[in-house]
Structures are given as C-alpha cells and as structure tokens.
Amino acid sequence: MIIRLVNWDEFYSELQQDCKLFIFILGVFCLFRVGFIAVMHSFLSEAATISDIAAALYYGFRISLKSAGLMVLMPLVCCTGLRLFLPWKRLSHIRLYLGAVYVTLLSFLFHARIPYYQEFRMAFNQLLFNTLNDDVSAIVHTVIEQYNLPVRVLLASATAFLLCRLLRRWLASKTYSFPRLSKWYHNIALRAALLVAIYYLTIFIRFGGSMTFAHNIDWENSGITKDQLLNEAILDDVQALYRAYILHERVSASTGLDMDPGRLADYGGYMAGHTVKSANLDDFLRKTVVGGTDAPPRQVFLIIAESYANWPLLPQYSNLNIANGLKGIIAQDEAAYVPNFLPNGMSTISGVMGVVTGLAEANLYLNYLPESYKEPYATALAPQMKRLGYSADFWYAGPNSWEKVRDFTLAQGFDSFYGMGDYDSTGGNVWGCDDYYLYEAVLGHVKSDRPGFHVILTVSNHSPYTVDLAREGFDPGIVAAGLPEKLRNDPEFIKKLGHFWYADKMLAQFVKEARRQYPDSLFVIVGDHADRVNIETNPPLFERYAIPFVVYGKGISKESLPEQTAGSHINVTPTLLELVAPSGFEYYSLGHSLTKGNDFGMNYGFWISPGHIGKAESEYSENHLTKSGLIPPAQDKIRQEIDSARAISWWRIKYGKQLKL
C-alpha cells in the first residue's frame, strides 16, 4: 500500500456523500415513523393530542439521529476514511451498496412492525429471540394466513426498490469543492475548523440531538407521551431491535438456585415457621394480622425515594444538613424509624420489584417474564390493599416506558399508573421530571372522598444532576462546612449532595402538605437503593448500602416498630398490612412484619440485623452500632434465611405457584 498525503478535495467530497447518506437514512426513519402512526392511528388513545404526536415525532427524530449515525459509520470508514490513503475512486460505490442494503432492511422492518405491533403492542421485543424455540411452522402459517405475508413482502419490495432509486439519484447530485483561501494559514485554520465541526456534530448525533448526557435520549427513557402507540413510534426499527436484544440478554442471564420441589417445600416451611401440607407455593406465604386496627388511615402514601441512603441520617453527618426534612419527620411523636434496612437490589427497578411484588431479588428480570403478566403474585401489595377498600395508583417521575414499569405495575394490580407524560413539568433530566412536579401532581389527584393507596417513585436524586439548586435555595457553603477538607472545594461532589438535599426537601414538603390536607393519612418512606454517593472513599458496609424505613401518621408511635428491628423491601408489604388492616385479615408475604420485631433483612448480596451487616456469600460482617450486647446471627440462620427467600422467589417467578413442573 502506498501512503499518500491527504487530498482535502477528495476528503471533502466524500464527506459530503456521507452527509447525504446520513440525511437520506434519517429521512427514511422519519417517513416510516409518520407512516406507522398514520397506518396504526386506530390504536391511538382518545387522550392523545396533536401536541403528543408532535412530541413523538420530535423525540423520534432525535433518537433516529443516533440510528442514522450508526448506519453511516461503516461507509464513513470504508469510503471517506480509506480514500485518505488509497486513490481508488470506486471505493465510493461501497457507500451506495451499503445504503441500498440499509434502506431495503428498513423497508422490510417497517412492514413487519405493523403486524408485530398488532400482535404484541410493541415495535419488536425480546420475543423475537424465542421464535426458534416455538412452533416455527405454526408461526409461519399464522403470518401467511392472518397477516397476508405475500402482499406485505410485495409492498416491502416495492418500497425498497423506490427508495434505492431515490438514493442513487441523491448520491449522484452535485458536491462542492473544498474552499481554497489566499493565505496558507487561513487554509490550515479552515481545515481545523472543519475537523472541530465534525467532532461536535458527532457528539450531537451520539447524544440524540444534545451535547451532553444529561439530555441524552435512548429506548429506556423515550416514552414521554401518555399514548402507548406514540411511545412505540418514537423508537425506529434499529432502536426497537436493540431494545429487544438487550431485554433478551437480561432474561437469558437470569439464573437460580439448584433445587428440587421437595427442597423448596422445606424452604417454604422455614419461611412459614411451621409445616405446610400443600403443593401450592402461595400457601406457605399465608399470614394473618394479629392486633391490627379498627380505624385505618383513609389515605396511604408509600414513597420510594431515589438513591435515599441512610448514612445522611447518622449523627456523624449532621453538619451536612442535607437530610433535615426526613429527620424532622422521624422526630415527630407519630413516627417510627428503622435504620437497619436494605434495598432489594442494586438498582431502582430491583427496589420497585421488591416493594410491588414482595418477592426477593433472585437474578430474574421479573418485569420481563410472562409469569408476571398472567395475574398479580399473591404477595403483590396493590391487590391486598384493594381488598381493604383502597384504590391503588402508582406515580413515577420518569417515562412510562422505563423498564416496562407501567405495564408491570398495572399487571400487578394497580388501578392506574401516571408517568411524566401524564402531568405538567418544566424541569428535569433524561430520567424524569423534578420531584416538585411529581408531588404536585399527586396532591392534585388525591380524592378525599375515597380511601386511596398511592405509591410514589421519585428520580431527582439521580445523575445527571440537573436541578436548579440555586433557584431552590441551596447554600453550598453550609454543606461544604460539614465536609472533610479534601471535599470542600469539589463543586461536583457538593452538587451531588445538593440533589440529596433537594429530594429530602421536596419529600418533607409533600408530607407536610399532604398531612395538612388529609390528616387521616399514613406515610411509608423508604429508599430504592444506596451505594451511589458517600463521603468516605471506602465506607463501611452499613453506610454504603443501608436505606431508611420510616412510617409516619395516623396510629403510629415510637413503639409501632420495636427498636431492635431489621428488614428489607420484602418486609414492606407485611409491615404496612399489619398497620392498616383489621385483626384476622389474611394476607400473603414472603417477609415478616417489622411490627412483630423482625430482626433480619437480606437482599441480592448482603444481610443486616440490629447492630451488624455482612456479605451474603461469605462470613464477613461488620458491627455498625456502638451499643453493646448485640451479637450477629448464627451462620446457619443467615444461610437459611437467604436461601429460603431467594429460592421461593426464584421458583415463583420462573415457574409459578405449583411445586411440580
């Protein structure tokens, strides 16, 4: 190979051709998006408006910038890149051939998306990868008969042929020569400016029409409208296929304990605390309220606070002043607080699954598994609250499409779901709106004339950190004064703590206002996970992983939860039901109520007890309290508790309620 000097005229010409291809493919994505909405308009909900359609087209354009950029990457390398070193002009033909392949594939995907959506209400999902495990001949027959496959193939072929003709003409259109200036240094500056422009344009395309990750758009956060069809239309076929692949990989990676049904019955007996003669796994989880109440609260608010760790509540960090809101609630006579508490998993969705279903993290993405959509699990919280006369709604500050949270919560018994596309908000980031708007929407929705159960999932205390802290009254100096010297001049770290401060402030304001409007109410406050921000580089396990659990409101006192209590998200359901249900009420839960002094909590990798925390897969543990006389649980108890909860959850999610396959 003969290396030659860069020919800027050739480089500029090839670059224009790549831009043409990019614009053409982007136009195809937008055309197919409009066509999909037009053809499938009968699936639009009555609540969908012109502004929703406009928003879908706008966000779809942004996400398709990424898809078009990805598809142009190969011709950019093979044609423009190689042309810098090889004088072979026919390299440009590769661009046309690749472009033709792209538009042909997109044409067939567009015509396949329509019947796929009619069947699954999604623009491709992980079920694509299950096709070969199914009855292939039956699937082919169904497609031919029900969806008129020959006609669709003909239409797709015609679409591809027309687009390929247009692409050939488009690429054959005029290009312009690279400008030449009179001064040599002007030419160098012009070439440098071109390279800088390419760099920033690449960033703009990479982040979907944004220059920063804070406003990046992808398949997980793109569902910003209140209409399911429009949310699916936002995803072009490349993004939809990518989503399908990721979801398939998540489910494929799920593993469980090596067990048999007989051993599972032993696990169930341990969790039940007595022998149970049944082949139905749910029978091992049946419990009865002891004590209870004859005057239940009329409104129940369960707040799952994003990244709300327990460590800011500890005395040694009081000078930071970032958790004064929740501290003020805990100090009330009508409040009880459990510091020995663990999240269900390391992510928000794991925490939500633990609270919504009452099942332990078992390395299964249950929000993507069929069993979760057949009927609510017996341990699910919403149906059991509804049996007590409450309506159940779920409020999320982010998009409805995130982790299928809307579909999952509705399948698990909630009457209604509200995401950020369902209420007004002007502040937020890629993950959702600022907490203020979420809480405002909840308060505007609650009806005082009927009992309600409201689950609220916040997002503001999550990177990228975009809340206007100055507008909210945050004083960085106060927080900095409580930091170690090495962190006092770190504005990014102080900004992170400022978002904790904001989330805490909004939470406390909401609780105060909701209690004022609805005195007959109960609040349950819990973090979704910790392990995001710590003062120490290598904090103790307790400071790194523990989250708070607080109950406040009607019927609560400091004695409602015994002092030496511990738990995790699977203990939320039994604790809440013991507080609001009458004596004798029958319910189902994997965990035990904290009102009865439950003294052990576990999750995906750790366990906790009053005074101690340790790793689930080893004998390592730490003492996290100064009180004497507290001893860690025996290793046999730790192993039995963890294996039993995981095994029952894994089997129930994977195979259903029957102990025999």
UniProtKB/TrEMBL annotation:
This is Phosphoglycerol transferase MdoB. PANTHER family: LIPOTEICHOIC ACID SYNTHASE (PTHR47371), PHOSPHOGLYCEROL TRANSFERASE I (PTHR47371:SF3). It is a multi-pass membrane protein. Gene3D superfamilies: Alkaline Phosphatase, subunit A. Keywords: Cell membrane, Membrane, Transferase, Transmembrane, Transmembrane helix. Pathway: Cell wall biogenesis; lipoteichoic acid biosynthesis. It comes from Sporomusa malonica. It is found in: Cell membrane. CDD domains: LTA_synthase. GO terms for cellular component: plasma membrane.
